[in-house]
Amino acid sequence: MVKRPVKYSLVDAFTDTAYKGNPAAVCLLEEEERDEQWMQSVAAEFNLSETCFLTQISSTHSNADAQSVPPRFHLRWFTPTTEVKLCGHATLASAHFLFTSRLAATTNVIEFLTLSGVLIAKKVPTATTNVDASPEENFSIELDFPTYPVLECEHADIPSFTETLNGVHVVSISKTAQTSDADLMVVLSSGKTVADLQPQMDEIKKYPGRGVIFTGPAPEGSGFDFFSRFFCPKLGVNEDPVTGSMHCALVPYWSKKLGKCDLVAHQVSPRGGVLELHLDEANQRVLIRGKAVAVMEGSLLA
Known about the structure:
This protein has helices at 36-46, 63-66, 88-99, 161-165, 191-196, 201-204, 247-258, and strands at residues 6-13, 22-29, 50-56, 72-78, 83-84, 109-114, 117-125, 139-146, 150-152, 170-176, 184-188, 212-217, 226-232, 237-240, 262-267, 273-280, 285-290, 292-300. By secondary structure, the protein is α+β, with helices and mostly antiparallel strands. Strand 2 (22-29), helix 1 (36-46) and strand 3 form a beta-alpha-beta unit.
């Protein structure tokens, strides 16, 4: 049987300007089950930091109940080389794709079933600086993610650390508490140092864990609380433009450091991105809010 084409949309996340933020390819799987090898091949073909796959979960509720029950979708994320357990920007891109399509145009809440459990995305009406956006597109998306604890680690645990950063002053080094996909979190003395950083990818690959987060306090008067960047060459992505999931670790750290629960972050990669953040201390959740822009759509023919 010939398989039907798979619809996709390329969405720039954590920005309201096309060709900024972090691009993700969102692929909608309607009926046919596609195997992991096919999904990984598609992700390698797009060669973006993340390609994700959505499958709608059929509702078992009556028509009356369905009006109050959020639509639910299975969601999986793939880098060009591997599947990952959590991705913020591709979740935001997926929610934007659905909110602007017939699948979720009449709702303000979507539930995603993922390898990290159930994730909720909410549509939040807001102003935009994008003069080309229609009234229907003037919204942000809020993601509800778990916090990631961080554990202090010694400089001696990090091979070639000094050589990698060319003598940049390090305030502290931590690691996120996941097991198989932990990240290092390196705090530098200033956000400008983070923005100017030029780490050596061959050395970054030697670090334990998945990748390395660099962060520092934002310059006074910038309108931001902290800057960050994320390097993960082991996943086939030297630098991820904007990384929602790493803020699951950054938000608890900076919330404690700055003494507040509402934060605004700037990921200072070449494409750049802005994230509005809130720490729910009682439930140990991070609310991540951002905008998105669709820049391309089409179909996969195989």
